[in-house]
Specification:
heterodimer, A: about 350 residues, mainly alpha, disordered N terminus, B: alpha/beta, Rossmann fold, Alpha-Beta Plaits, four-stranded antiparallel β-sheet, 12 helices
Chain lengths: ~350, ~375
Amino acid sequence: MSDAMVPAATEPPVPAPAAAPAPQAASAARRAEPLGPGWPTIAAKEFADHVLSARFYVLLVILGVAALIPLYFAADQIRSAASQVSGASAVFLFLFTVGPPNISLLRVDQFVGIAAPLLGVAFAFDAINGERHEGTLPRLLSQPIHRDDVINGKFVAGLAVIAIVLAAVIGIISGFGLLRLGIVPASGEVVRIVGWYLLTVLYVALWLAFGMLLSVVIQRAATSALIGLGVWLFVAVPIFGQLIVSIVGSFVAPGGSSATDILSAASAQQFLLRLLPSTLYSEASIVLLDPSVTSVSTPTLGQYIQAQQQVPPLLSLDQSLLLVWPHIVALLALTVLCFALAYIAFMRQEVRA
Amino acid sequence: MTVRRRPPGGPPRLGARDPGTAQRRPGPARREAVTRKHERGSLIPPPPDLGSGGAPLPISTRGLTKRYGELVAVDSLDLDVVPGEIFGLLGQNGAGKTTTILMLLGLTEPTRGWARVAGFDPTRQPLEVKRRVGYLPDAVGFYGAMTGRANLRYTARLNRLARAESEPRINEVLEQVGMANRADDRVETYSRGMLQRLGIADALLKDPTVLILDEPTTAIDPIGVVEILELLRRLATERGLAILLSSHLLSQVQSVCDRVGIFAAGRLIGVGTVPELATRFGESDDVIEVGLDLGPDSLGDPSKLTAALGRIAGVTKVVAGERVGDPFLVRAESGTGPRVRAAILALAAKGRLPLTSVREVVPSLDDIYRRALEQRGLASHGQVAA
């Protein structure tokens, strides 16, 4: 058959002009245009999925309760203390850092520190293996998007949802303070709260990246959820984390009777605790929220005695930031590491399991 | 093994063009990477340059190879699919069909050789390939909590279709696959066959120039299969789509494919139209099925009839039906089939055979497939799923 017999028919992608409808011409024109990035589409879909999902509401309730119970105690404390501390700075921040005496767990900052990682894991543990399980991954990857658009989009969506939830919780607490207690934050306090919020989002991002890593590496969503919960229990819940650390610590630096021995055992324990991101977060968090905290390390004996004799100073925000800068950098590095591992594992994985 | 030819017996199709024309062969212009590959193994011709004139073939591969460690999943695949053609990739599970498809889409990288899809390299320009290729994966899945329509909208957005353009398009493809009435139900209420229909709609949504379907008819009911295959035929003929489909349901594929490639243990062991393959891998004898009425008032007993049939010139063997009513099988020397059939009819006309039917047996794709595997010594694990 010579080409002359079917001249027009030899020009794909529109081989038969009579039969080719208008959409084909339109799609040919569209294909000439460069493609925009693919991750916003995926992020938008994932965001909508999250917000409409049952797990979103369950976690909202958990976090809400987690914030409101301590708030009740904090309000109690603030009311009774307000008369004495009138004129003292940072009363507004007490909303976040004060709880019933002797129960350190019932403080907003502590509670958020425990609940927020759960949010991170919950929104990521089935990100990739869920798609695999539903059989949607090959179809998704055969669309004109890069493979990393999938993991980037899902990460952004998870982080956005969590950031919004956290902002809402902080907003509710602040509103409660303003309306019911009638305390008004100073500008410095607002900046500190925003700083604490950003720190918390970073901390959640770490757990989100960790959940993402689990969802890439582990084939079954149920298994990755269980592993995520286990790690959360031993790392983010202080009782369990400190239990392990104190056991390990007692082997590394057994305490003695002298003050030096006790202090060295304490600093050994602190070093071990600092290997946990939860410690990094809670230390950074209390420094940011409480201007009177001037040190995050166990003092030497001399420093301790010196501190006893001084009037405790209040740190400015930049001084506080300087104190916890290493913590923030370490958290950031851990987040990047987790996400990078998840990213690389996903890029190297076969589409078929 | 080179497969660059049109089906000689096939009907001339709109948009079908001879892939062997010299203009697309770049000749001496080869790239370094390809030359290096040459040194390692068999000769792989270089991929055609995009600028070499002429429209690129929808699918073209040379020496395409994928290894997983020791296992060779796909071994030196040479394949061409022309516009308007439906090409069937046949093989058992694990024969390398899906791996081939994933390499064509750039979802997995070939170890050796090259592939070009719509003129693009799937490894280097996966996005350009994926913009033009509609893909139905094996065991396709959708987001269960979303409706079928919402799932298609997501695909449309991933393809950067404008909403004004995508809504009518979604209605069109839903109509085409017969899913318009269920489009607004949640996908988790769908049956397997409905998922597959939605999968085909999903693949058609981006208005592709190439359609790659992995086991498109596995879960669909027989009537649905006919509808889907008719749709595919129409798309190939009217829009000049090139369609590559893989299947292990050989009898279904037989009816719709212009050409088929038989895949076994990662190798393409035969390519051509079904009649071509029948000649190559079919039986050497022609086989004629003869229905005879052996009722009480019949003209004779089976042994006499067998003898009568056996006397016809060219007949090598006659096998009587096992039970009353079963047809007799008459084997004749290759090429004598029509003559033998005429002789049988002549006998019947003379009143010497109680003939009820006579039919030449066309070997089915299943037979061809089994025999092809036997000839290559690959039929190690039993029967072909059919």
